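Help: read this over?
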Amino acid sequence: MQITIKDFIRFRDFVYNRCGIFFETKKIYFVKKRLLSRMDHLGITNINDYLNLLNYRDKDDTEFQALINLLTTNETYFFREFDQLATFGEHCLVEISDKKEEEDDRIIRAWSAGCSTGEEPYTLAIIIREILEDLDLWQVKVYGTDIDTNVLNRCRKGVYSPRSVKDVPDEYLATYFSREDEKYRIKPRIKEMVSFKQVNLMDKLSMLQMRRMDFIFCRNVLIYFDEASRREVAGWFYDALRPGGYVFLGHSESMSRISTAFRIKKMGGMIVYQKPAG
């Protein structure tokens, strides 16, 4: 089945307008393979018919969700980019928790936006449990969100392969995971700290639900967005953060190229972005 450049652009623009993910022309083979897979599954041989289905007959977004689940890339593991996580735990978390303790505000909220299969939010929960003293006096809420419903189902199971845990320190592996044959299961003390939900970063109603965050991790997600979408998401992140809260991006990403609203800080040798306290 032929997919022309014109067809690809129409399809790409449809996906972009729905969720902000932008596929460059060089991604045509990647997109085409997944698009044809969905069309073949439905017995559709014409891209116009498929786009009509998505636009007018997919009332509950079932087909669009199945498509997005194929188009999104999910590559992650526990304690990825460890130096940045050390800055989060040893500097940013300590700073925020000390201030909250002075204000008698014992709630910590962290959000992993684009959490994929869940390794990042569970990692954040482990770090918070390790760093915060008197954890029983704190209410910790870690949120993991993604647009892909398949990976969210895997998040909630909390079972991982040896590859996913390859960078977990041995002490943490023994403390926070249980071995099940060739798999590793997150123990309840960590699992109960994390909740998962579907969030489209370009959906206003979804983003308005994410509020009063102390930390937002969105690492290697915005690289799939174009400049306009990145600016929009950065604005939502700014609104979602408490004054003084922090955003963490991937090493190849820079908030300063997206938004001037955040203060650039160097902590623990890492660049972080802070919402001004006022």
About this structure: Residues 5-71 form a domain with the Chemotaxis Receptor Methyltransferase Cher; domain 1 fold (CATH 1.10.155.10).
